[in-house]
């Protein structure tokens, strides 16, 4: 294990680098359905197909990227992924036809997920003992801080230019990130037998963890296809107002991560109950954000951010505690695959449903699903407490 001492290269650099990248690519998160619908004239089914292919590309990248981080230095993979990202972003600034954009966007998604998983492994493969929770909180705060600032900057860019010129600018700046990425420290690599990964994954608690994450991430697919269009069509917001609305949620995520995240490392903390409370916040936030008053809606969206931010930290902690560091990449890749499958399911259902029935309906339905996901956790907590009392 690496010594549990703080280092700007192991702690701050991966977090800051991915935070800046998240800032640059925030335009690809919730704005694209607006671009597809209003400027390129894609139908709801086409928009759903694009995000389904994006999720498929995420899925195809998950296991190879995870295994790659166990066999190749994460720094090398990060450099390759950043260079490829720049190429795909540049291409998105030129293509307009549905088949061409589908192809380019799928390539971008493949390399995006490779980079995201690589930066997570760059952080998590450097063990820090009791500081693990602090480092995870820092990473999540930088990631969503970049998104928050990026939402506002994206609104300014899209107002001053357009989507296509914005993609070209982002491609150039992304290429510059190769310079600080060269300073990333080397990670531990060792070839592992595939049966070791299978043995890790085929345990009851890991199977339950993966299944729960699949259901949880369906709401991400709903958000990706319906969120931006809901703000545009239902609330009537312009691009700058949308940027402020979206940024408010991520400010909430940063706040809860910095306040709560670093306290979750305590093994005595009631992690299941914390996740249940976070799910309640997340679900209630989705239910309330469909109110057609923008100020009330954004308040509920921030409540949703409090819930999701807490769950993100617990997710990272869960991965580090479930698996050995030398098999962390491959196992995390499989978990990422399940999460991506959840996004696919959410996107495929939500995009056409939002177009035909209204974008608020997939959002509130996913809020109900989030609330229901707390039930098995409560049951497990009660059973664990009963077993402990009887023992």
Task: Describe the 3D structure.
- The chain is mainly α and 391 residues long.
- Helices cover 80% and strands 0% of the residues.
- It has 17 helices and no strands.
- It has helices spanning 8-25, 32-39, 44-71, 74-92, 98-124, 132-160, 163-176, 178-181, 194-201, 204-216, 218-234, 239-260, 271-288, 294-322, 328-357, 360-372, 374-390.
- The radius of gyration is 20 Å and the shape is globular.
- Mean pLDDT is 82; it is low at 1-5.
Summary?
With 391 residues, the chain is mainly alpha-helical. The chain has 17 helices and no strands.
The radius of gyration over CA amounts to 20 Å
Low-confidence stretches: 1-5
Binned strand content: under 5%
Helix % is: over 70%
Largest beta-sheet characterization: none
- Helical region count? 17
Order of helical and strand elements: HHHHHHHHHHHHHHHHH
Q: Write down the overall mean pLDDT.
A: 82
Shape: globular
Distance between the termini: 35 Å
User: Number of DSSP strands?
Assistant: 0
**Secondary-structure-derived class:** mainly alpha
What's the structural blueprint in terms of helices and strands?
Elements: H1 8-25, H2 32-39, H3 44-71, H4 74-92, H5 98-124, H6 132-160, H7 163-176, H8 178-181, H9 194-201, H10 204-216, H11 218-234, H12 239-260, H13 271-288, H14 294-322, H15 328-357, H16 360-372, H17 374-390
Helix pairs in contact: 1-5, 1-6, 3-5, 3-15, 4-5, 4-7, 5-15, 6-12, 6-14, 10-15, 11-15, 11-16, 12-14, 13-14, 13-16, 13-17, 15-16
């Amino acid at each position: 294990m690496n010594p549990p001492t703080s280092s700007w290269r192991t702690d701050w650099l991966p977090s800051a680098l991915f935070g800046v990248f998240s800032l640059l690519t925030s335009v690809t998160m919730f704005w694209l359905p607006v671009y597809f619908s209003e400027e390129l004239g894609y139908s709801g089914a086409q928009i759903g197909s694009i995000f389904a292919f994006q999720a498929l590309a995420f899925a195809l990248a998950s296991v190879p990227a995870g295994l790659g981080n166990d066999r190749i230095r994460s720094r090398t993979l990060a450099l390759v992924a950043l260079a490829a990202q720049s190429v795909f972003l540049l291409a998105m600034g030129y293509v307009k036809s549905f088949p061409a954009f589908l192809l380019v966007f799928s390539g971008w998604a493949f390399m995006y997920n490779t980079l995201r998983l690589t930066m997570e492994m760059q952080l998590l493969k450097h063990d820090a003992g009791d500081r693990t929770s602090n480092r995870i909180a820092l990473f999540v705060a930088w990631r969503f801080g970049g998104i928050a600032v990026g939402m506002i900057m994206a609104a300014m860019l899209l107002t001053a230019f357009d989507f296509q010129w914005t993609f070209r600018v982002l491609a150039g700046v992304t290429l510059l990130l190769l310079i600080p990425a060269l300073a990333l420290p080397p990670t531990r690599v060792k070839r592992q037998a595939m049966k070791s990964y299978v043995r890790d994954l085929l345990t009851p608690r890991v199977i339950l963890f993966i299944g729960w994450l699949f259901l949880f991430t369906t709401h991400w697919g709903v958000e990706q296809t319906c969120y931006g269009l809901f703000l545009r069509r239902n609330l009537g917001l312009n691009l700058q107002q949308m940027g402020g609305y979206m940024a408010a949620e991520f400010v909430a995520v940063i706040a809860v991560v910095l306040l709560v995240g670093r306290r979750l490392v305590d093994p005595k903390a009631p992690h299941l109950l914390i996740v249940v409370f976070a799910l309640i916040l997340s679900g209630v936030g989705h239910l309330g954000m469909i109110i057609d008053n923008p100020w009330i809606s954004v308040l509920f969206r921030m409540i949703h951010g409090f819930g999701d931010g807490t769950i993100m930290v617990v997710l990272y902690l869960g991965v580090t505690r479930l698996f050995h560091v030398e098999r962390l990449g491959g196992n995390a890749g499989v978990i990422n695959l399940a999460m991506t499958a959840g996004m696919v399911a959410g996107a495929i259902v939500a995009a056409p449903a939002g177009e035909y029935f209204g974008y608020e309906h997939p959002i509130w339905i996913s809020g109900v699903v989030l609330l229901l996901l707390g039930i098995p956790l409560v049951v497990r907590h009660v059973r664990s407490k009963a077993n402990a009392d009887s023992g």
